[in-house]
Amino acid sequence: MKRRNAIWVFSDVLVAFFCLVFMYPMLIGLMNSFKPRTEIVLHPLELMPEKLSFDSYLFTFVEMKYIEKFFNSFFITVCSVALIILFSSMAAYKLTRENTRLSEWLFRGIISFMLVPFQCTMLPLMVTMSRTGLIDTHTGMIIGYLGFQCPFAVFLYHAYFKTIPMVLDESAKIDGCSTLRLFYTIIFPLALPMTATIIILNVLTVWNDYLFPMIMLTSMDKRTLVTGLVAFSAIRMKQWDKLLTGTILVALPILSLYIFMQRHIINGMVSGALKE
User: Quick one: which of 209, 244, 218, 242 has its CA closest to 60?
Assistant: First the structure.
């Protein structure tokens, strides 16, 4: 018993040590954002600044046009994730309830797109977007993310819906419930843990994406926070206080969401892995 307790204590200490190792660079970056540039150069590893300064935050907020780019990222992310949830959940539910060879092959075909990297589809996608007039539009961005992210969402929902017994469907249909009403009033609410997981994973992917919006959005007023940060970094290349501040401002919204909802990721993954 004492040996087991000693192992647990050692494990906790080891985990705490690695947490500090991984958190230390983040803390350095956060605290340096409150320092003037000279202090960053002279004392880069000191956690506490001599004097808290918010000048770089005010400068970066205005220079980056943070509000404009924040709402661009917010609009693209919310619309993309909402449509991914809508279409992938309905497709996965239909594929799990239709126990036919066709549905099985359709499911395999959908998840096979998870193996195709974006770089392989980038050129034909840009040609298609150009011919349809979707280049430099938020609509084109949303449609692109819908195609990229739906296969993985269908895969997760498919595994989760298989854990929901068919008895619920049969009982609801006996009571006269239509398939659409059955899905949205009974099945979909039961899948909230998996929905929360898919929301978080897709929000992280869409919000932090750089390559797709960089080649799709050419107008500065339509760019996202990440692409705006890159453009800002090119101008303020050696101004470390401004660069650190811009990075924190871009990461702060998504980091807050992740910390607030991180427990749902584990709940959804575990629930969806119970039965296949």
Answer: 242
Q: What is the CATH number of the domain that holds 200?
A: 1.10.3720.10
| 1 found inside a domain | no
pLDDT tens digits, one per residue of 150-204: 999 999 999 888 888 888 888 888 878 888 888 888 888 888 888 888 988 899 8
Our count of domains for the chain comes to: 2
Instruction: List the one residue out of 202, 260, 264 whose CA is nearest residue 76.
Output: 202
Residue 64 lies in domain: 58-272
pLDDT, tens digit (0-9, with 9 covering 90-100), for 94-125: 898 887 888 889 888 888 888 888 888 888 88
Q: Measure the CA–CA gap between 224 and 254, rounded to whole angstroms.
A: 13
Tokens of residue 62, six digits: 């205005």
Tell me the two tokens of residue 150: 């739906």
44 and 70 housed in the same domain: no
